[in-house]
Write a structure and sequence with these properties.
Ammonium transporter fold; mainly alpha
């Protein structure tokens, strides 16, 4: 009996102790939750600094890879006799953008006074005197902003391929990346007059990057005129096939990947739970808009053209991506899908419209970047109540007038002073011969038949 009593007492004691522990669990759990919430809402400054800097650097590298995407897309859509030239243009324009943003561009964008029109003309130099107070490395921000500028220049390259001379293009690229792009970007991203007076909103640059490149490309196409043989004397439109649609498809996939850095990095922070969630949502909306852009073009081609145009489907992806770029954070997924789908419709309608207007756009950059850029910007208030349709329209109009006017003036000045177009003989032979001196694919070039006697 004694042993039984001791056993009962032991069990009762264990129950009492367990009850005491259970009573303490809510308090302990609440304390842990309180600490976790505090850590989530007020992360350590050095943690914020590291994650924000990492976002800029990694996303900047991803956006830089878009340069390869543009290069492959354009090399695939031009004829093989111009492919080496387009590659040289793309790597050189990236280098020019890098130097011009360092020498002048960055300070023009971010040296503007609140409500102003242009920043300071000065060379950028990193200043990390108070890194934790700033929240990110100064150099990481410069790098991220620089690759955006290079993207705008790449848009021009594809439109005017196969007939523009190299050095006039390089000169224009320096002006575009050093002055034209930075001035209009300062109006919004630098806190200038569009941001201060009209509440203009362009999250990642549907207008500030893509429409800017589109307007510059349109001005160049007008100044240059179409390629030889593109349009007949009786109004016929001749199709000029590119050298490699698989290469163009690879370029589009690279651009699609790069856009996650383009839009995701534009959150400009990764130092909190909210920022991480926002970047994730941006990725989903970006991907969805591209997907519906492609599907819309494929469906329209199937039912209205009876055959699916691959190059137009590729631009459907780019059009969807450009369309969502002005506001990739606030839309619900269905809204992102709708915005991208309209972008696909724009590609399908505007591409033949430009053809009928005899505006020769080799890669279809004007429909994808200019028209979809304007669409993506004007529709921002559809999902973001902080923006207004009036403010968005003012921003689109200001960008259009400034960029197109300055660009076409520069192109016509270059046309008068140095000449911008290759000769008829050079164009027929291919710019790889006149500008580079070697073809892109020598093994596939026409060779004499050894069985045929020489003349």
């Amino acid at each position: 009996m004694t042993k039984i009593k001791y056993a009962i007492l032991a069990v009762m004691g264990a129950v009492i102790l367990a009850g005491s522990a259970v009573a303490q669990e809510p308090a302990a759990a609440e304390a842990v939750e309180t600490v976790a919430e505090a850590a989530a809402t007020t992360p350590a400054p050095d943690t914020v600094f590291v994650f924000n800097t990492l976002l800029f650097l990694v996303m900047g590298m991803v956006v830089m890879f878009m340069a390869a995407g543009f290069c492959m897309l354009e090399a695939g859509l031009v004829r093989s006799k111009n492919a080496a030239t387009i590659c040289l243009k793309n790597i050189t324009l990236y280098a020019i953008a890098t130097v011009m943003v360092w020498l002048i561009g960055y300070k023009v964008i971010y040296g503007v006074e609140t409500g102003g029109y242009i920043g300071t003309l000065a060379i950028w130099g990193h200043k990390d005197a108070d890194p934790l107070g700033q929240g990110y490395s100064d150099s990481s921000d410069w790098f991220f902003q620089m690759v955006f500028v290079a993207t705008a220049a790449s848009i021009v390259s594809g439109t005017i391929a196969e007939r523009v001379r190299l050095w006039p293009f390089f000169i224009f690229t320096a002006i575009l990346t050093g002055l034209i792009y930075p001035i209009q970007a300062s109006w919004e991203w630098g806190g200038g007059w569009l941001d201060a007076n009209y509440g203009f909103s362009d999250f990642a640059g549907s207008t500030l990057v893509h429409a800017t490149g589109g307007w510059a490309a349109l001005a160049a196409a007008i100044a240059l005129g179409p390629r030889r043989g593109k349009y007949g004397p009786n109004g016929q439109i001749n199709v000029i096939r590119g050298s490699s649609l698989p290469l163009a498809t690879l370029g589009t996939f690279i651009l699609w990947l790069g856009w996650f850095g383009f839009n995701g990095g534009s959150q400009l922070a990764l130092g909190s739970l909210d920022d991480a969630i926002s970047v994730s949502n941006i990725f989903v909306n970006t991907n969805m808009a591209a997907a519906t852009g492609v599907i819309t073009v494929v469906i329209l081609c199937t039912f209205l053209k009876r055959k699916i145009d691959l190059s137009m489907a590729l631009n459907g992806a780019i059009g969807g991506l450009v369309s969502i770029t002005a506001e990739p954070l606030t839309p619900a997924v269905w809204q992102a899908a709708l915005i991208g789908s309209v972008g696909g419709c724009i590609i399908f309608v505007v591409t033949p419209l430009l053809e009928n207007l005899r505006i020769d756009d080799v890669v279809g950059a004007i429909p994808a970047h200019l028209f979809c850029g304007m669409w993506g910007t004007i529709i921002v208030p559809f999902s973001n109540s902080d923006a207004t349709y009036l403010g968005q329209a003012v921003g689109i109009g200001a960008n259009a007038v400034f960029v197109f006017f300055v660009s076409i003036v520069v192109w016509f000045l270059l046309k008068m002073i140095v000449g911008i177009r290759a000769s008829a003989e050079e164009e027929d032979k291919g710019l790889d011969d006149s500008e580079i001196g070697a073809p892109a694919w020598p093994d596939f070039s026409a060779k004499p038949n050894p069985l045929q006697p020489a003349e």
